[in-house]
Amino acid sequence: MLLIRAIVRPEKKDDVLAELSGAGFNAATMVDVVGRGKQKGIKIGGMVYDEIPKILILMVIPDEEKEKVVKIILGTARTGTDGTFGDGKIFVSPVEEAYTISRNSKGL
Amino acid sequence: MKEIMAIVRMKKTGATKKALVATGVAGFTAVKVLGRGKLVTDPQELDKCREKLLAMGLDDFSDARDTEKLVTSFLDGSRFFPRRLFTILAHDDDVPRIVEAITNVNRTEYGIGDGTIFVLPVEDAVRVRTGESGEAAIW
Lengths: 108, 139
Hints:
The complex is a heterodimer of chains A (108) and B (139).
Chain A: E1 2-8, H1 13-22, E2 28-35, E3 42-44, E4 47-49, E5 52-61, H2 66-77, E6 88-94, E7 97-100, E8 105-106
Antiparallel strand pairs in A: 1-5, 1-6, 2-5, 3-4, 7-8
Chain B: E1 2-9, H1 13-23, E2 28-36, H2 43-57, H3 64-75, E3 81-90, H4 95-106, E4 116-121
Antiparallel strand pairs in B: 1-3, 1-4, 2-3
C-alpha cells in the first residue's frame, strides 16, 4: 500500500476529488495547510507572501493503482495548459499496514 | 520505528487520548481533518444508516423533506465529514498494542465511518531538546 500526499490549490480541490471519486478512489482525507515552494513564495510589490494556503489530500491506495491516481491528480490539479508555479506537489510513501476500525479487520 | 496514523470520529477524540495514555505511548499529535471513506454500495447497509439518520433528524421544527434531502446527501459518499487525525510515533513492538487500543475504543454501533489506521515506516527521528536520534528519540 502507498500513502499519497498531494498538495493542491484550494480552488482545484473539488475537481481533483470529484475526478478521483469517479475513478473509484472515493476514500480521502484533506487538511488545510499553508506552504511555499521553490520560488520562496509570491512577491507582490515589496511584500513577500510565503504562507500560501493549499489543501493537503491524503489517500492510501494499493501499490498497483499508483500510476492511475498520480495521473488523475496531475491531470486535474494543473492550471492552464502547461501548469503554473504553485500548482502543487505529490509525495508517495510506503504504508506497511492498514486497519479498518468498524470491521476490526486488517486491510483497506 | 513506525508512524501510526489513525483517523477517528471527532467525538472519540477524548476516549482515544485516554486509551493512548493508558497504553503508554510516548506522545501524539492530533489534527482536525475532513475525510470520506470507501464508497458504500451495499443497499442493505445504506438503508440501515438512512433509517437511523431519519429517526434522529425528525422533530417538530424540521421539515421532513429537508431532512430526507440532507440524509440522502449524507449517504451518497461524496460529502466530507470532520474527523481527527492522530499521528503517533512508536517502537516496532508496540504497534500491535496501540492499534488494538485505538480499535477497541473507536468501534461504534454505526459501523461505517469509524475510521482507519495506517502504519508507516519511519527512517529516523530526532529529539530537539537533547539531539538524540533513532529509537532513543521516541520514548
